[in-house]
Amino acid sequence: MSRLAKSSLIVTAFTALGLGLGFLSNVLIAAKFGAGKDMDVFLAATTIPFFIITILSGTLNITFIPVFAEYRAKDSQEIWRVVSSFINLIIVVTTVLCLTGILLAYPIMKALTPGFSEEKLIKSVELLQWLFPIIVFTVINELMASVYYSNQRFVIPSLNKIISPVLIMIYVSLFHNNLSTKSIIFAILSAKFIQMILLTGGFLRKHDFNYSFVFDYKHAGVIKIIKLMLPMILLTFVYRMIPIFDRYFLSKLHDGSISHIDYAQKFLSLIYQMVTSGILISIFPIMSKYAAENKWDELKALMSKGIRMLFFISIPIVFFLSIYGMPFVKFTLEKGAFTASDTSAVYTAFAIYMLTLPAMTMGAVIAQGFYVLQDTRTIAITDVFQVIIYFIVCILLLPKINYLAIPVAYCLYSNFALFLNGFIVRYKLGGGGGVRIIKSMIKQVISATICVIVLGIVFKLTTNTLISLSMIAMTFFLYLMISRFVFKTEEAIFLLDKITIFRFGNKR
Asked: pLDDT value at position 501?
């Protein structure tokens, strides 16, 4: 097995485990609070801290790793001075943001949730103030992980992904009967703090990670990272305005609207991260290395492989869950205070969101093309334009289809972004691989269609939820078989031929 494949499997396995455990804790929380007032307050309070976290942590990896690769290619002795100075700068910035947020919590929540009553507003402010320190912990975690990934070390940061959800799940399970939204905040904070200590401890112990308390923020390497970050901060800021925009309008609708959309988004995020994390984290340092060494053909080939593999994995998931996903949502959420009506509302939104998955996964690889080219300005500009379209569509559709305007607008936004950014990055890299990608997609869509028809026949014969879920898994296996032995797609061959049972004596 190649190093890339092995790295992808390691990251995917630990990410899937971490996401699965995290989702399990969300299921327990859903059973306790349902989709009513308390959950709306909790979700509203998490919006701003997670907004800031996404802006900072989302830009750190994609700007830090290419610069790290550039310095490493030069065999520069300054690399660890750059790393240390940047880490220390991030600690200062996040601490200031945390303190400022605590002081301004009330006006922030007032502006975010104009439809909240005074009671709901006060509760959300209190939760927000407690949650703000998570910014410091999480951003430091992400930066430490970037250093590991830059060195193509995946085990430690991947293993660390399961620590936080495990601790949260244990806390939620042990104190479920006496659980409050404030105690959930405490559990999240404690878990992220422990995660930070363990990851930074491993960082400092590594002999080749020569961290120091230097603060050379004027160093050329630090300045370059900051210059690359600024357009990406704008991009991520605009993009993350989407959930803030969602909360703003949904706060004016009936109780539960925020929760229904949030649970649907959590399902989408869970599936997206499980599909993409291993591949994206593994190929990005290699893409950065190819770009630093001007190996453009190798870079384009790796991007093409990543796009084809992600579409191969995502398309059957879209077909299965958008059409037959009700048992999945019901099985995971419909417990305790979470009603059948809540399940139906979440599933409807989730089915629409699933139509964005292929565009999101392929778009993530295309975005990495911009990042390794150190062209964060272009993608920032295009995404601002795309988000404006999203806002307009939401405003037009909200009076007509209520909360479902949110996933419909996001679906249009994601697919438009894929085509626009794909066209631009293809132009920048000189094209190549387009026909191969399209042929692969056609084969995979045909395979998935056949499997959906088979699954539909099976669903006619049973109403048992567990049987339905198991049949979805079996049908995905059928999809792999058809792709491998009928259409002989490279992606299916790559996946199945890594498993000894499918080699049939062939040595590859």
From this structure: 40
